[in-house]
Amino acid sequence: MNIRQLRYFYLSACTGSFSGAARAENVSVQAVSKAIIELEQELGGSLFARDGRRAVLTPLGSALVEPARAAVESFDAVPVTATSFLHGGSASRSDYRLALVTPPFAKHELICAALGRLISRMMKAKVTVRLALGADAMRDLETGLLDAVFTVGPLRDQRCTCLPIGNVSIGMFMGQKHPLKRKRIITFDDLEPYPVLHNELIDGFNETILNTCLRRGLSSPVVEISTDEEVADFLEQQQGYILGVYLKALDIKPLAAMHRIDPADAPPVPVCMVTLKERQNAAYDRLNHFVCNEFRSLKHLLSE
Question: What is this structure's pTM?
Answer without folding.
Answer: 0.66
